[in-house]
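BUG: 3D viewer hangs when loading the predicted structure for this chain

Environment: internal workstation, default settings.
Expected: structure renders.
Actual: progress bar stalls at 90%.

Input used:
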Amino acid sequence: MTLVHRTLGEVLIREICDECELGSKERKLVDRIFVRWESLGGDISKRLEVVNRVMGKNPKRANITIAVSWIAREFLSRSAMVDGGQVS
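Structure tokens produced before the viewer hung:
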């Protein structure tokens, strides 16, 4: 379980994936993306490579990208609240 999962909870992540019309296969890809991101720190270019590599040619690439972005924004927002409004 990643920091993103612990911070947001499985329920919210599942709701976001459902809102983005992702099935269980795509939700697993979203989870895998966040697991791999955790080891990359803030390296944006490597994070984008991970997203592209994990998604492959999945027909719901756009939906997965939207879900990952939405979840990342939610995580940053919650992290900022915990850190007193400062994103580290």
